[in-house]
Structure formats: C-alpha cells, structure tokens
Design goal:
Largest sheet of chain B: 6 strands, mixed
Strand order of the largest sheet of chain B: 6-7-8-3-9-10
Number of helices of chain A: 11
Bound molecules: adenosine-5'-triphosphate, magnesium ion
Order of helices and strands of chain B: EEEHEEHEHHHHEHEHEEHH
Number of helices of chain B: 10
Strand content of chain B: 25-35%
Structural class of chain A: mainly alpha
Order of helices and strands of chain A: HHHHEEHHHHHHH
CATH architecture of chain A: Orthogonal Bundle
Structural class of chain B: alpha/beta
Shape of chain B: globular
CATH topology of chain A: ABC transporter involved in vitamin B12 uptake, BtuC
CATH class of chain A: Mainly Alpha
Helix content of chain B: 25-40%
Largest sheet of chain A: 2 strands, antiparallel
Number of strands of chain B: 10
Number of strands of chain A: 2
Distance between the termini of chain A: 50 Å
Strand order of the largest sheet of chain A: 1-2
Oligomer: heterodimer
Chain lengths: 295, 237
C-alpha cells in the first residue's frame, strides 16, 4: 500500500498545480482560439513576486501570495492589451509568435533582475512530513496547503464562471463571439478579465511551488508544457477538462515512475501530449470540430 | 424627419471594394411591422447590419428617434432601444435558456426576473426548458430563445433576419403569431424574409430590394396581390 499511496498523493499535489495553470491556457483558448505560450512565465513571475514580497520585503507569506497574484493579474492584463489585442483578427500565427516572444522576454527579464542563481522561500529547516494513517503515505504541511489552496481556487472559479454576470459573459463570448457583441457585451473587456483571472491562478501555482522548490527563471517552461498538456487532455477550452487533465497528468507522471526510471518523469507528459494530439486532439471534454467559434 | 421612428437616407454600403447598397431609402414608424424582401444577395441582411452599426464602410444617414446613429456602435444602439436577431441560429448553445435571456439584458443594471418571466409567458415552451442548454433545443425553440433574448431590453425597434429560416411550416406559423403578439406590445419590427408570404401577411408595409437598390415599396397586403412581386418572390412558396 505504502508506495502506491505515496505516488497517488504526490500525483494529486502536482496535479493541483498543473490544473491551476491549465485553467489559464484553457480559458484564453476558449475565447480566442489561441495558445498563450507566455502563460508558464506568468507562473514563474508569480513565484518571484511572492519571493520579493515574502523574503525581500518580509511580508507575511499569505499577504505576499495575494500581492503576487494581484501583480500577475496586472501583468496578464497588460500583456494582453499591448501584445495580443492589437493582433486580434490577424490570424493564428502572429499572436502565437508574439506569445513565444513574450515568454522569452519574461525569462530574460527574470535573469536580469533576479540573476540566474537559485532563489528560495525555504528557511533551511527540515520539513518533516506527517504520516497519513491507514494508507501509510507521507505528506508535508506545505503539501496539504498546496492541495487545499489549489482546490479552493478551482471551486471559487467554478462559482464565478457559473453564477456571476461576468462569468456568464465569459461563457457567452466563448460560445458565440458575434452574438455576444450584439447583446452589448464588450468582448475585449471580457477577454481582459480572462487574462486577469488566468494569470492570478498561475501566480498562485507559482507561489505554491515556490514554497516547496527552488525558483529559477526557467521554472515556467516545464510546468507550462505540462499544464498545456493537461488542458489538451481535458479538452482545451473546457475549464472542467483542464482540472481533470491537470490531476490526470499529475497522477500519470507520478504513477509512471513506478514502471520506468524517475529520470523519465518529465517525458511522460510529452508522451501523453503526443498521444492525445495524434488520437484525440479534442481531448476528453473537448468541442467537436465545426462547433468552434472563430474570432 | 423626426416623425418616423427610423429613417434611412441614401445609404451606400461596402464590403471591401464591393458596394452592395446603393442609395437605399426607407423608414419605419412607431409600432409598425415592415418587411424587406428580395432575392439572395440583394443586400437585405446588410441593411439590418447597417441599422445595428455593424458595418464600417458606409455613407448616408440613419436617424433613430430623430438622432443620427450612423456613427453609433451596437452597444449604444441597444441602449437607445434597437435589438437584433441575426440570421441563423443565434443562441449561446452552451448557456441555458435562462442564461441566454439573462445575456439579453446584459447591459441592464436592474433586476431582470420580471422581464424573464414575461418572456416565458410569451413562449411557454421555454419555461419548461429554462435550465437546458439552448443548443439542445429544436430550431424553432432556439429562434424563440433568440427573439425572447432580444426582448429583454424592451426595444422600440426589433430587427429580425429570416426568423423562420429552416423551420417547419407549423413552426413558421407559430413564430409569426408570436411576432404579432410582440408587435401588439408596441414593438416596431423590420423583418427580412426570402420566403415572403407570411411576413407580408403580418406587415404594415414592405420594401422590395434588388441588387442593393430600392425596387418597390408599398402596403404589405398590396404587395401580396402585386403580380410582379408574386411572380418574383412568392412563387416557390
Ligand atoms: N461579410 C461579407 N463580406 C463580403 N461580402 C459580403 C459579406 N456579407 C455579404 N456580402 C455580399 O454582399 C451582398 C449582399 O449580401 P446580404 O447578406 O446583405 O444579402 P441578403 O439579401 O441578406 O441575401 P440572403 O437572402 O442570401 O441572406 C452579397 O453579394 C453578399 O455576397
Ligand atoms: Mg441575408
């Protein structure tokens, strides 16, 4: 029981993070049919902002987390306004290339400001895990926080999207962009909200990871690809799919190291991505071709 | 000028380099039903898009309630009291019927529940399905959702682009019955129809459009009896 349970617990912890980041990919794609390749770097930015507030400025870690989320929300808003919005209606490729450019820019900026050396939230004390009764797996306090915070944010997003006026408008714009404008919804405003929320969620993921692992300017790359994979697996454009995909990727890669050397852990997500792109590109909950909205 | 609810004066309209409307003139009075008929590609839909501010490249004047709206955007026009039901199935398919109606009132800040109820009263079939995704409804029901959604702002003028397209004969009849009811509440309408019989039947007046130009204009019932109109636009059904 012990090792299997441990791998499942590890999978859930990682999955929560992937799901948080995948939500940003999927929400943007749902409306704009565009993969925001800079999203992983917003995650990285969130981690560093958390570090600045918490370690550099000595702010309480929870407040630092909230401030980092706000900071990334602003960053997401600005990135959309200055880089993506001017390119809307110009086809698929220009925003995609721009996104890759933004992603490299943010990495370079992080190296410039924070240096290429590793930064950490950790205080050096050894984190002792708690043994979970009956299933004989170990979990640390920070990992419990990761699960609780990520799930809480997902539940909050669910209620926001389902019941608030802006949430409904987001679904309306994703559903039928033109008719949404006809009823007086301003799609650009809705898109701004999508970037704001998606970026704040990615920042939360960044801070949660930062409490466990070291920060590096390239930390967004692998999380970005895995979360993007999660969004594809769940059916890109669908927020529940992103959550399901996130946990699936987390579980698959952690359980996978039972069977193959752990050095290949990162390759597992790529294999899953390749599999879905080849055999089920619409993912588990994805829209069928022809039902897509074009922007 | 100001005595009509809507006046279109010498409207030219282009898609890219191609001019599709040429000096189009028309007017709609308060509470009137006006049909625009004409063959495929005549520019009927383009007139509605022009009224609703969806066309960039154009010349001429459009007055609504005495105000020139040629520079107005859809969002402002909805505020002035014009709503639009575009051609084709125009619901939000993954939103519930109720949410579709709520989106119709998106620009309103007040409580919508009373007006949603009055839409349900008009279209009783919709209330039973209020929590279903609109995309799962039949074509006729979807059209009712789209019309109900356009009523949420209590418009003075409702623009309808082929409201009966692709529906069964009974469903067509039902939709036109409902439009008469809506009109009785004082809502003026412009209806674009290719299949013009039913729409002429309920119209006070009608305009015939051909190749982007005014061709004929008259009372709805007179048009039905007019030989040329009958031959050209009512023949097939
Ligand atoms: N978005 C567009 N871009 C370019 N040309 C267009 C566009 N929409 C319509 N047209 C052209 O403008 C002309 C008028 O089109 P419009 O849709 O107004 O005609 P219609 O009378 O509504 O026809 P139908 O009965 O087929 O709906 C047609 O020649 C059409 O091909
Ligand atoms: Mg048309």
């Amino acid at each position: 029981m012990g090792i299997a349970a441990q791998l499942i617990i590890n999978g859930i912890i990682a999955g929560g993070i992937y799901a948080l980041v995948a939500l940003g990919y999927t929400m943007v794609y749902g409306i704009l049919r565009f993969i925001n390749f800079a999203h992983g770097e917003v995650f990285m930015l969130g981690a560093y902002l958390g570090w600045v507030f918490n370690i550099l400025l000595g702010v309480n870690v929870i407040v630092a987390g909230v401030l980092a989320m706000l900071g990334c929300a602003v960053a997401g808003f600005v990135i959309d306004k200055i880089a993506y919005k001017p390119l809307r209606g110009r086809g698929m490729l220009p925003p995609l290339i721009t996104a890759i450019g933004i992603s490299l820019f943010l990495q370079a900026l992080a190296i410039l400001i924070f240096g290429a050396q590793i930064r950490t939230f950790r205080t050096g004390e050894v984190v002792r895990g708690i043994t979970i009764p009956f299933i004989d797996a170990i979990i640390t306090k920070i990992q419990i926080v990761i699960i609780i915070v990520s799930v809480a944010l997902m539940v909050a997003l669910h209620f926001y999207i389902k019941y608030t006026k802006t949430g409904k408008a987001m679904r309306a714009v994703a559903d039928n962009y033109e008719v949404a404008s006809i009823v007086g919804i301003n799609p650009n405003k809705v898109i701004s909200y999508v970037f704001i929320i998606g970026s704040a969620l990615a920042a939360a993921g960044g801070i949660l990871v930062g409490m466990e692992q070291n920060l590096t300017p390239t930390m967004g790359v692998s999380i970005g690809i895995k979360s993007f994979t999660a969004a594809v697996v769940g059916g890109i454009g669908n927020i529940y799919g992103a959550v399901l995909g996130g946990f699936m990727i987390g579980l698959i890669e952690n359980i996978g190291i039972w069977f193959i050397p752990s050095g290949y852990k990162d390759a597992i997500a790529f294999a899953v991505l390749l599999f879905f792109l080849l055999f089920k590109p619409t993912g588990i909950f994805g829209v069928k071709k022809g039902e897509e909205v074009s922007v | 000028m100001t005595k009509h609810l809507l006046t279109i004066k010498d409207l030219d309209s282009w898609y890219g380099q191609m001019q599709v409307l040429h000096e189009v003139k028309m007017h709609i009075d308060k509470g009137e039903i006006v049909s625009i008929i004409g063959p495929n590609g005549a520019g009927k839909s383009t007139i509605l898009k022009n009224i609703f501010g969806l066309i960039e490249k154009r010349k001429g004047k459009i007055f609504f309630d005495g105000k020139n709206i040629i520079k107005s955007k859809p969002e402002n026009l909805t505020k002035l009291g014009i709503t639009y039901v575009p051609q084709g199935r125009s619901v939000f398919p993954n939103l519930t019927v109720q949410e579709n109606l709520e989106m119709g009132g998106f620009i309103r800040k007040d409580d919508l529940s009373e007006d949603i109820e009055s839409v349900y009263k008009k279209f009783p079939g919709l209330k039973e399905r209020k929590d279903q995704k609109a995309g799962l409804l039949s074509g006729g029901e979807q059209q009712m959702v789209a019309i109900g959604r356009a009523l949420m702002l209590k418009p003075k003028l409702l623009l309808l682009d082929e409201p009966s397209l692709g529906l069964s004969p009974q469903m067509k009849a039902l939709i036109f019955e409902k439009l008469i009811e809506v009109n009785k509440d004082g809502v003026a309408m412009v209806i674009v129809e290719q299949n013009a019989k039913m729409s002429l039947n309920i119209s006070d007046r009608a305009y015939v459009l051909e190749l982007g130009k005014n061709k004929m204009h008259g009372k709805g019932k007179d048009m039905l009896r007019n030989k040329d109109v009958a031959k050209l636009y009512l023949g097939g059904g």
